[in-house]
Design brief:
The protein is of the alpha/beta class and about 450 residues long. The protein has two domains: about 200 residues, Rossmann fold; about 150 residues, Rossmann fold, CATH 3.40.50. It is about 45% helix and about 15% strand. It is built from 17 helices and 13 strands. The chain has a six-stranded parallel β-sheet with strand order 3-2-1-4-5-6, sandwiched between helices. It has a five-stranded parallel β-sheet with strand order 11-10-9-12-13. Helix 6 links the parallel strand 5 and strand 6. Helix 5 packs parallel to helix 6 and helix 11 packs across helix 12. The protein is elongated and about 80 Å long. The two termini are about 40 Å apart. It binds nicotinamide-adenine-dinucleotide. Nicotinamide-adenine-dinucleotide binds next to helix 1 and helix 5.
């Protein structure tokens, strides 16, 4: 069984401490607030949360749970310290990390004379990079010890909801364990060995980011549903009935569909229908900022691709993919068409490859669209991949219809690839080589930062 200290006895820390004690670990809670410490010491829950009081009382009786204001003794009596202190917003929206910094200083001070290796695990919600830029340096400065040598810093974000936090802790959907050296996760693997749900071992940055992505997505879902419900109400449509049908589609709606990072959306339906809904709201005098923001956000994503190309200062561009998605020759509102139009407007010489698009076959509104958007597209379009790539200084990949092997077989080391299909971390695209594509620079992979 592990020896654990938990810094911060609020909603997250009190639940973490009580649940770990209930699982048989030896837990000491630390808080700067003596009232919370006294409550836990006397077997009462320091925050109101269903089932918590019972677990605290049980932990106290079993002598597996205690609390103190003395950070140093807690660090010395434990091997793993969880940081669960608050990270509120400052007036500007910036995160207030002062409690995290003070916890790190206290842990670092306590580590100075400590001989044994120690693990520090961030459970507080902090932005990606905080472990490296603030938590590790603060502990190193206070302890005069080295991260990775004398202590390890891990990230284990908290996904519980107030009101059912104990139940969520005991039955999580996911558990995320982040560290830049997988060996640092050994005690966390033991602590969470019996947990239900999927356990993800990942880097510090991914673990820190996942928490924000979850909360941003939850907030997005609420506001989206409320805007739709407001629109329904004005249109005299039953919003609950709409939601019931909408959520029943687990293939496209409540699913992983459309959640792969990639290029902007387009096509004959999504832009048109989003535009119509936003306009409908406007006519009804209904403010729907989220729905109104969808097309500008998509346009901003497209502009980042344009900027990535222009930043290279190279003019001969090969764009791979013209239709709005693989397997179709529908060009209407294709983001590639918009990209090409923008690049031509900036004086670039653009050649285009798309295996599915043959101008002779296009008809109706599709043909009209491309003729209106790029009148001389015929002279630029080819189904010969090698010929388009060989003439280009930059190859812009905007289609999933081409796999990496086929791409790598055609590009030369002196060419640049801008891959709009899958962004890589910025570090992977800096320099002249990305690991999986030797000799090829991929500037656009950083454009989503
Ligand atoms: N509340 C939630 O449901 C929830 C869920 C997931 C993640 N989180 C995140 O977890 C973190 C904690 O949230 P919370 O709601 O438990 O906060 P909270 O405000 O309820 O509790 C924070 C506790 O930390 C204590 N504290 C402050 N500085 C300290 C220090 N230097 N040493 C020891 N204790 C100190 C405070 O006295 C307080 O008791 C935040 O980053 C939050 O965003 C919260």
């Amino acid at each position: 069984m592990a020896r654990v200290s938990v810094f911060g006895l609020g909603y997250v820390g009190a639940v973490t401490a009580a649940c770990l004690a209930d699982a048989g670990h030896e837990v000491v809670g630390v808080d700067v607030n003596p009232v919370k410490v006294d409550m836990m010491e006397s077997g009462r829950a320091p925050v109101l949360e269903p089932r918590l009081e019972g677990l605290v009382e049980k932990g106290r009786r079993a002598c597996r749970l205690r609390a103190t204001t003395n950070a140093s003794s807690a660090v010395h009596e434990s091997d793993v310290s969880f940081i669960c202190v608050g990270t509120p917003s400052l007036h500007s929206g910036r995160l207030d990390l002062s409690s995290v910094a003070r916890s790190c200083e206290a842990i670092g001070d306590a580590l100075r004379p400590k001989k044994e290796f120690h693990w520090v695990v961030t459970r507080s919600t902090v932005l990606p990079g905080t472990a490296k830029s603030m938590i590790i340096p603060t502990i190193e400065a206070a302890s005069e010890k080295r991260a990775g040598v004398d202590f390890a810093v891990c990230s284990n974000p908290e996904f519980t909801r107030e009101g059912c936090a104990v139940a969520d802790f005991l039955n999580p959907a996911i558990t995320v364990l982040g560290a830049d050296d997988p060996l640092h996760l050994v005690p966390l693997r033991d602590l969470y060995g019996k947990t239900s749900g999927q356990v993800f071992e990942t880097s510090l940055g991914v673990a820190e980011m996942v928490k924000y992505v979850c909360n941003a997505f939850h907030a997005l879902k609420v506001t989206f549903t409320n805007e739709i419900a407001s629109l329904c109400s004005q249109l005299d449509v039953d919003a609950r009935a709409v939601t019931r049908v909408f959520t029943a589609d687990t293939k496209l709606n409540i699913s992983k569909a459309y959640l792969d990072p990639g290029f902007a959306f387009g096509g004959s339906c999504l832009p048109k229908d989003v535009r119509a809904l936003a306009y409908c709201g406007k006519q009804l005098d209904l403010d729907l900022p989220l729905l109104r923001a969808i097309l500008p956000s998509n346009q901003a994503h497209l502009e980042r691709a344009v900027e990535a190309v222009l930043a290279t200062k190279r003019k001969r561009i090969g764009v791979l993919g013209l239709s709005f998605k693989p397997g179709t020759d529908d060009l209407r509102e294709s983001p590639s068409v918009q990209l090409i139009k923008r690049l031509l407007g900036e004086g670039c010489d653009v050649q285009v490859w798309d295996k599915d698009v043959s101008l002779g076959r296009l008809a109706g509104s599709n043909r009209q669209f491309i003729q209106d958007e790029i009148p001389h597209i015929g002279a630029r379009l080819s189904t010969d991949l090698e010929s388009v790539v060989s003439q280009s200084e930059i190859v812009v990949v905007g289609t999933n219809s081409l796999n990496d092997e086929a791409l790598l077989a055609t590009v030369r080391p002196d060419q640049l690839i801008i891959d709009l299909r899958a962004p890589l971390p910025r570090a992977a695209s800096v320099g002249t080589a990305a690991d999986h594509m030797p000799g090829v620079y991929q500037p656009a992979l950083s454009m989503r930062q």
